[in-house]
Amino acid sequence: MGDATSPADQRNVEVKARISGGAEGFEARLILARNLSGCQNAELIEQRDVFFKSPLGGRLKLRYLKAPSRSQLVFYDRPDVAGPKLSTFNLIEVDEPEVLEKILTQSNGVLGVLAKRRHLFIHGQTRIHLDEVQDLGHFLELEVCLRPEQTLEQGQSIAEELSTNLGIRKEDLMTGSYFDALRKANH
Asked: CATH number for the domain including 163?
């Protein structure tokens, strides 16, 4: 095993928040994201994530993407706290996700599946996601993609400014992942 953060690790600062107000609240955030990004049409991405047990911590998921995109195996680790937080991750593109899912199911075991429809906008070095999560609701996620020389604090500052511009309230901030919230809702 390598260090907790090796040169291969990628880093970003993430913010996840619930969007209240149903479809109207979601549409209002789409308009704000369009204005911030300067792009009228978001990239629409259909995702299906299969989460696996990860005995050493972190989260391990196989992300199915519709063609022409390749699916991805992603391992990530981040604290379960509200507001801007550092996430370290590694990913690899996968050509045969069904085979990999079978192998990981046999070796690690499956925790569950999450499906979402993601509207992606780019603002500077930040990915703005407006997500419609099946069986869970509407959400907004920011991913400030940190450059190697940038500090966590610089990323948090960018995330906080964008959170304000997108109308994210403290009470809407999430501590865990969508999958955590889905599992909690189903228990």
From this structure: 2.40.320.10
